[in-house]
Amino acid sequence: MERVDALVGRLERWMLILLLSAMVVLGLLQIISRFVIKAPITWSEALLMYMFVWFSFIGASLAVKELAHFEVEIFMIRLPRPLQKTIAVAVYGLIFAFAVFMVWKGVFLVKLNQRQLMAMMPFTMSVPYAILPLSGACIAIHSLKHIVGLVGRHSSKWRD
Fold this sequence. Notes:
Elements: H1 2-36, H2 44-65, H3 73-76, H4 81-112, H5 126-129, H6 131-151
């Protein structure tokens, strides 16, 4: 489980690096084409928006892996250690359930939008929706790894 989680994390980091680099280059090209050349790239704004959506979902998945998502610790630190661990397992169980829901509904939306073309781009609308099952699967892997770590002897955050 650790190896799969680590591999998925590395892939997510590389996807974020590639997406951010492409977004910067495309944004600069859009500015140059619009204000210098006076011939804007018509499809660049829509592509930047979809790339930002992908970037956000991949970043959210990586945040689950790195324990960087939002949490209120003021209550957790006041609880006994066994209860902290139980609540953490329950939280990651809910995250896992939501991730499975994302995969399920994401696959449905990808299939539903296979014929609808994107405006000004040679892709169908299933391409932007593909991030839902992809990030859902990654979040499921990360949350499952945390559950296994909490239930097993290698607790990732809340130690006995």
